[in-house]
Write a structure and sequence with these properties.
The protein is an alpha+beta fold and 357 residues long. It is built from 15 helices and ten strands.
Amino acid sequence: MSAVALDLEELASSIKTWGRELGFQQVGISGLALGEHEQHLQRWLEAGHHGEMDYMQAHGSKRWRPDELVPGTLRVVSVRMDYLPGDTGMAERLAQPDKAYISRYALGRDYHKVVRKRLQQLAERIQTSIGPFGYRAFVDSAPVLEKAIAEQAGLGWIGKNTLVLNRKAGSYFFLGELFIDLPLPVDPPQASEHCGKCRACLDICPTNAFVGPYQLDARRCISYLTIEYKGSIPEALRPLIGNRVFGCDDCQLVCPWNRFARPTGEADFSPRHGLDNAELAALFRWDEQQFLSQTEGSPLRRAGYERWLRNLAVGLGNAPTTIAVVEALRARQADPSPLVREHVAWALARHGEPVAS
C-alpha cells in the first residue's frame, strides 16, 4: 500500500472518529454511482406520486449525479444523527383525539440547522488536518438522493416504507451529506434489506398512501398533506388524518426495527413549548405572533401559520364534540384566509354545527 493510500485510509478513519465526537451516531463514505435509484426516481415522478413537489424533478440528473451538482466531487460522507426523545408518548398521543399529534422529528430545534452546523464543524476538522479541500454540506436542502447515498455508504437499507432502516437503530434519525473532492476509500454498501415478509408499515398507513412496497404516493401521505401541500386537503382524506397536524409517524411506530431505536442525547431535539402534549383547541387559538414565537427555530415553520390553522381545523373536525372544540372552531369562522374558513366549515359540520354564511 502506498503512503498516499495509507494516508487516505487514516483520514477516512479519522473522519469517522471526528464525526462521532460531533454527535453523529454513524458515518459512512460512498462513491457516486447510485445505480437503480435513478430509475426508481424516474418511475415515481412519471406516476405523479410527487404531487406538487415540483422541485423533485427540477434539477435533471444533478439529483442522482453528485459530481454534476457539485463539480469535482469524488466521494460523499454520509452521516446519521438520532433524534427520538426519551419519553415520546407517541401511541398515547395518537389515542387522545383532542390532543395534537406532531411528528416526533419536529418537536425540537430545526434539524437542518443542527446537522448542518455539525457537518460544517466536521469539514473544518478535516481542513485543520490536511489543509484546504473542496466540500459542500447538505441536509435535506438540495437535489440530493440522500437515502440512496446512505444505503451506498452502508448506513442502512431503504425499507418498504421508503425510509432508511438500520438494524441497530431503526429509522428515527436524520441524514446529512458532505460532498468532498478527496478520493477516500469507500465503505461497503448495504447489500441486503431486512424487511422480509413484514408489511406492518404498509397496512398501518391511515390514508393508504403506499401503492406497494417501497412505493409511496405522496398525494395521500399525511406528512405531505400537512407540510408540503399548499391547497385544500381532499375531503375524503380529512377524516383519516385524525389528530395528526404536522407529519405522521405511524409507519415508523409499527416498524419492528424501531425496537432498537435509542433515545437521543441531543438537547436540541427535546420537545419545546409542551408541543408533545398540547390540545388541538388551545393551539388553534394562537394568533400569528404566538405561532411565530412558539415555533422559532422549529421545523413547524415550514407549514406556515395558514396551513398550521388548516391542519388544526381538520384535527378539530375529527376530535370528540366538546364545548372547547366547538368554541375554538366558531372563533375562526370569519378567519381572513379562505383556506382556513373552508376547513373550519367542514369541521363544524362534522360536529353538527350550523355554519355561518
